[in-house]
Structures are given as C-alpha cells and as structure tokens.
Amino acid sequence: MKIRSLYANKRNKKGQVGFNIVIGVVSAIITLVVLSFAALLVMSSLRNSGVFAANSIEANATEAITGNVSNALSSFFGSIGTVFAVLIAVIIILAVAIIILVTRRFGTGGGGASV
User: CA 64, CA 62: separation in Å to the nearest integer?
Assistant: First the structure.
C-alpha cells in the first residue's frame, strides 16, 4: 500500500505564494519572540546573580545592556501590528489578483465579451 504524499501535486502552486509569505513571516516573528524572551531571561539572571560587585563597572554595564535590550524589544514588538497590517494588505491584493485571473479565464472561454 502506497502512502500518498501531501505534496504530490508540486507543479500547481497557483495562489500559494501569498500563503507561503505569511507562514514565513509569522514563523520568523514567533522565532524572534522566543529568542528575545530567552535573551531577557539570561540577562536578568546574570544581573541578579550577584557575580559582579555592587556599583562596579560590570554591574552598571549589565544594567545598561539589559535596559537597552528590553527597550529595543518593546519598541520592536510594539510595531508588529504594522507588520500584520501589511501582511493583510498583501493577502487582499493577492486575493483580488486571483479573482481577476479566474474571471478572465472563464470570460475568454465563452462567446460573450471578455475583459
């Protein structure tokens, strides 16, 4: 008994380009979220570990780096809404383009006027 592959029809990928873009962007954002939380956990555990003497250059540098990274991450993830808005616009444009292509294909097949 043969198992049919999910990707058996590799030649017909019309309409999947936008979906692949969305999956790639969402996967990248999820990866960035996980990595940023891991980096913040490492930095906060380093800051709170007591390795550096109080008010030393290293302790102050660790505080500054942790503050800068947390500010950068909050500003980056604050603009994720814009990224999703652009993705939604791309999906809408692709849907309109697909609808136009399908109606043209059906319009040229009949005896009526075509666009």
Answer: 5
